[in-house]
Amino acid sequence: MRRLMALAGTLFATLLLMATVLTPTAPADPVRPAAAGFKVTNGRLYDATGAEFVMRGVNHAHTWYASRTTKALSDIKALGANTVRVVLSSGDQWTRNDATDVANVISQCKANKLICVLEVHDTTGYGEQAAAVTLAKAVDYWISVQSAMTGQEAYTILNIGNEPWGNTNTAAWTADTKTAIGRLRAAGFTHTLMVDAPNWGQDWSFTMRDNAASVFASDTLRNTMFSIHMYGVFDTAAEITDYLGRFVSAGLPILVGEFGNTHSDGDVDEDTIFSYTQAQKLGYLGWSWSGNGGGVEYLDMATGFDATQLSAWGQRIFNGANGIKATSREAAVFGGGGGGDTTAPTKPGTPTTTGVTASGAALSWAASTDAVGVTGYDVVRVSGTTETALASSSTASATLTGLTASTAYTVAVYARDAAGNRSTRSGTVAFTTSAGTGTGSCAVAYKVASQWQGGFGADVTIRNTGTAAVNGWTLRWTFANGQTVTQMWGATATQSGTQVSAVNAPYTAAIPAGGSVAFGFNGSWTGTNAAPTAFTLNGASCAGS
Predict the structure, then answer these.
(1) 343-360 pLDDT, tens per residue?
(2) What is the DSSP string of 165-215?
(3) 163 classed as catalytic
């Protein structure tokens, strides 16, 4: 993180929120040697036991505060984290952390049962920050400390370089990253690799997003994951869900490698980061434990490295909704989830439905059993061979919201335990939602963003004004002047005459209570282009906004 050292440089151009270029789908995993440690499969991270692993942790600035590391790791673990991202230096900007020191850090992570993400910080803002070095120099460093890394693949992830490009010549990031991955593989590293985005980690140019599939394919082991840093660029729910959702939809592994609750460059929407990563089972690593300077001391989680003096940010990330204590699960490689538990829960009972409305239904089912303990259930919609997540619950019941009126649903349930084991799917139950009436807890803003002879572009924002999250939506409206949708992004359009239905994309499906999502479209018009005056969301009418 460049802010810790108060580096100069202005972030951001205008964020092209709903860009029309989608990330290509990740190629299928090739036949490859079995990984000795972590591995990426179908966009998910699995540890050496084969259990899925979702990172929940924080960053610690070891290279500047090495004397604090022993206690810091112990305190971070005690607060519930399962991962720590450790700042190292190649010696180009700060004092070099040699192989002996790296081995000691790994040993301390293992002693505290923390997965260790190791990163080189000297690359921060290359191309814009004068002292920063290239990813090639970072690879040189990793090769020089390889003796400390070999044999630790089950406990460490290698984050090649922190925020490796500033805002200058970011197009070079793609080739640079591919070369770095290739050199590490040629040197014999089989670790899961992590790559940071350019634009000081925030990728407002979408360079990483739009080239992630080709970067992933360049790894001969197909064992690379992507890290986005979320500060001022990510100040709205739509920006967060759109960015992360495109990786999820493409089957590419993504986590939030750094973020805060606020920043001088913008008010970060941390609540959406927490809720969306939890809903999608994506990792997050907050910045940072303690020791921030240069005017960003508010990013300290522990004041003066004192775990008993958590800041507002520290309280939020450790103890808040969807925070570390509520969602972290120790890696199974350490015996998390019941001492290496590999037995899945029994199949849940077939669910039954009550209270079916235009936008929801209540479900209940016979509980599963497990050798260690069932920690939750996942409700899915079943359509042929396709499943779509609808809800999660810690008990044998769930309330579905955000359903579409007058629509047939077939749903089923999975049980899961703390080790990440998942049961076989329950039997299915079918029901049809009623016709939508009344006013919903939603507001819609419709704006013609640009217009030309015969054509126009429009932005639509849906705001959830209710107290329950929406998970899946259909927005409907009627054009008054015969307009036609020709292209839509962030949703999928169908049109019959003047009536339009927009169905969420996978990455815009979730609208948290009080949150919003946005999508856009291009259309054609003749003579008059009046904005629609009424909208329904999942069959219920929405207020204007």
Answers:
(1) 788 999 999 999 888 778
(2) --SSSGGGHHHHHHHHHHHHHHTT--SPEEEE-TTTTT-TT-HHHHHHHHH
(3) yes
